[in-house]
Structures are given as structure tokens and as C-alpha cells.
Design goal:
This protein has 241 residues and is mainly beta. It has three helices and 13 strands, in the order ααβββββββββββαββ. The longest helix has 15 residues. This is 3-keto-alpha-glucoside-1,2-lyase/3-keto-2-hydroxy-glucal hydratase domain-containing protein.
Length: 241
């Protein structure tokens, strides 16, 4: 399985360099991949706290889904957007581009109903961040808020490959309780949830007071509005048995 995941992650990154944006290749279609975003409409997505897609804060331009700059607040403008259905075991691929000093995130195992107060919807987060220019990179513990990290829990590898002025490919692999983060074809985070070690890790994080954090069998996928402009495209998923 590990060799299979490695081959998938590398091939996905390689294909993203040459493939047409927001379109599945014939091979991807045969392999069971599906577009989570079609590149043109808001179909399949809605606001995390509303039943429709946000009327402000997000735009679609030339095949790119952009969350707009609005002062750096967490989910204070258009708000986070989530998939209209939940996912359990999967490989998720998202191409993203960070503008200078930007903060955002790609979340999974999200429960949009959990947080009724201020801030973002609650779920495990693949951190999207300008490590050089955003102060959050220096917060947390041992770099666990830097780009690609499992936010506030597990830091990404220090030698992670990052394309500063272009699109990067984030990949999240979920097989039951085993999870991996990949960046541009390189594994940068690996962990297992639903065990004593995981629960202890959560207990010393900002998620300590959220019940059963990260242990749900399934959840929505989320793109975060953190008040900074970030670009997304080629949002794809392959569900695993």
C-alpha cells in the first residue's frame, strides 16, 4: 500500500505539470478520480455555516478559485467553504498558490456544525501558509503551524519542496486511521489517529476542548477563508475502499 501511495503522489504531481486544468485525464477517470471542483461553477460546495455558496469573499476567474484578501481575519468575510458531502477513505489533491504573506488551509474530517462561535470550522488541517512572511509560522510548537503541517499538531518535514511563486500540489491520503500529507510529490507528514498517542497530542493543542477531535470516521473537506488571497485549482479526489 505504501508503494502504491508513493507512486500515486509522484504521478499526480507530475501530471499536474502538464495536464489541462480542472479536467480529469482518461487515466484518472479509469482509476476512479473525480473532480471536487469543476473549474467553472460552485457546484458541490457551500459555505461552512450556510446552505449556499458565499455571496462574497470568493471568486472564480479563468479556472481558478480564489479566496479574496479581507484583512487577515479567520472566516470573517466570505467564510470557509466545504464540500456538500462527506468523505471517509480517500486521496485528495489540491493545487494551491500563496500570495505574499498569506494564510489559508485545506481541512478534512470537518464537522461544520461543531463550532458555533467565531473562527473557522473544525477539522484536521493541511496548513497553507507563507512561512517567510506570515507570523503564524513562528507560533505553535516546533514548527507545527508551518506550510504542510498538520496544523498545531505535527510539523511538516523541514526539507519540504515548495514553489514560491507558482502552484504547489497538496495531497492528503486517508486510509482508515492512517493519514499522510504530501507536498509536490514528497511525503511531509504521517500520523495515526484514534489511539492514545493521538488523543494525548490533541490534548496539548488548541483543539483540546473540541470533543473527539480528528477521530470521526468521515467528514467534509474544506477550503479556508483566513482573510488572505490564495488560489486553488485542480481539486480532485479518489475514494478508497
Amino acid at each position: 500500500m505504501k508503494k502504491y501511495i508513493l507512486a500515486v503522489a509522484i504521478s499526480l504531481f507530475t501530471m499536474s505539470l502538464f495536464a489541462q486544468d480542472n479536467v480529469l485525464t482518461e487515466q484518472e477517470t479509469r482509476d476512479g478520480w473525480k473532480l471536487l471542483w469543476d473549474g467553472k461553477t460552485t457546484e458541490g460546495w457551500k459555505g461552512a455555516r450556510i446552505s449556499t455558496f458565499p455571496s462574497k469573499g470568493w471568486v472564480i476567474e479563468n479556472g481558478i478559485l480564489k479566496v479574496l484578501k479581507s484583512g487577515g481575519g479567520e472566516s470573517t468575510n466570505g467564510g470557509d467553504i466545504v464540500t456538500t458531502r462527506k468523505y471517509k477513505n480517500f486521496i485528495l489533491k489540491v493545487d494551491f498558490k500563496i500570495t505574499e504573506g498569506a494564510n489559508s488551509g485545506i481541512k478534512y474530517f470537518v464537522n461544520p456544525d461543531l463550532n458555533k462561535g467565531e473562527g473557522s470550522a473544525i477539522g484536521c488541517e493541511f496548513q497553507v501558509l507563507d512561512d517567510e512572511k506570515h507570523p503564524d509560522a513562528k507560533l505553535g510548537v516546533k514548527g507545527n503551524r508551518t506550510l504542510g503541517s498538520l496544523y498545531d499538531l505535527i510539523p511538516a518535514s523541514a526539507d519540504k519542496p515548495f514553489i514560491k511563486n507558482g502552484f504547489n500540489t497538496a495531497t492528503v491520503v486517508v486510509i482508515d486511521n492512517k493519514v499522510q500529507h504530501w507536498l509536490n510529490g514528497v511525503k511531509i507528514v504521517e500520523y495515526e489517529r484514534n489511539n492514545q498517542m493521538w488523543n494525548a497530542l490533541v490534548a496539548y493543542s488548541k483543539y483540546a476542548n473540541w470533543p473527539n477531535f480528528g477521530n470521526a470516521p468521515e467528514g467534509n473537506i474544506l477550503l479556508q477563508d483566513h482573510g488572505d488571497e490564495v488560489w486553488f485549482k485542480n481539486v480532485k479526489i479518489k475514494e478508497l475502499k
